[in-house]
Write a structure and sequence with these properties.
This is Transposase. Helices cover 72% and strands 0% of the residues. The radius of gyration is 26 Å and the shape is elongated. Helix 2 packs across helix 4.
Length: 112
Amino acid sequence: MGSGRMSSIMESMGKKRPRPRRSFTAQFKAEIVELCQRGDRTIRQVSDDFDLTETAVRDWVKQAELDTGTRSDGLSSDEKAELAQLRRENRRLREDVDILKRATAFFAKETR
């Protein structure tokens, strides 16, 4: 086997193919979080056992802790939902104000 072939095998081993994005039910996430919180396996072991990324599992555990109040360094799911709703409402109100400003300017010109 030539050295060129060996280096190409080594290169292909080093590059992980990107994972397809998967979605999971709230029930599944809750069960994974429960397994992690039980304490008989590490987050890494649980993520390996279920072919999940360790980062995703850590995020699920963190969010569950925020939601139950055992942790306070972020927003709960309810707070995130409220924030998203307030941002949408804020954007809509800014658009309404912009439309009203243009309409006011238009009518001001018309009535001169």
